[in-house]
Input
Amino acid sequence: MQEIRHTPVAPTSTRHLASGGEIDAHRHDDHQIAYASRGVIAVTTDTGSWVAPATRAIWVPAGTVHRHQAHGELDVHFVGLPVDVNPLGLAGPAVLAVSPLLRELIVAYTRAPADDSPPRLRLRAVLLDQLKAAPERPLHLPAPTTPLLRALHDILRADPSDNRPLTALGHQIGASPRTLSRHLHHDLGLSYPQWRTQLRLHHALILLAEGTPVTTVAHRCGWSSASTFIDVFRRTFGHTPGAGPTG
Output
């Protein structure tokens, strides 16, 4: 993170970013929820990245240094919450499932005048109730910290379709598959297949936001067929790659 800006209050607002647009590294005194009603939003910290389509939102706790990036034309809604209001009880960033009702509440709340009128306070109360029920989704792509894992990450990030076994990848970077598996477990808490799937799903979301056809995304990200990719995507996000959230 470079040239970190400090934003005293996490504002509640709606913002449009062109595809590829960024909000530089900064932090807030308050918690923030970032939700993209159009496009895909990525939030990156020193510990990793979180990517969310329109069925997900990203929780960013107060004080977390982070930056935003748009994939596809992005309409993003930011909900700021005081540091003593944490309906999720989360100490770190997370991806949350967004129900149709929660989606409409976030959009309405960020578009309403920022005041303490009774209707707005009631809207906020319902929004907080829905947040408490929003399940966390394991869509964090952790940033590797060891040199070996960073080398492995660079290979797969450059070509997510690389289906070589860990033995061949380890030979390229000078490590045994056993060593790499041990580093993945201790550094990231993931097996190699789990980590690779997370990386591929993140890349797939970005390609889809840019308008890449589903079949092309499947092959670029290493799935054996479009149907296999669609099945993994549906189980992860609750809808097919070609469909948005329903309801």
Observations:
- Strands lie at 5-7, 13-17, 22-28, 31-45, 48-52, 56-60, 66-81, 94-97, 136-137, 140-142.
- The chain has two domains: 5-140, 144-237.
- The chain has eight helices and ten strands.
- The radius of gyration is 19 Å.
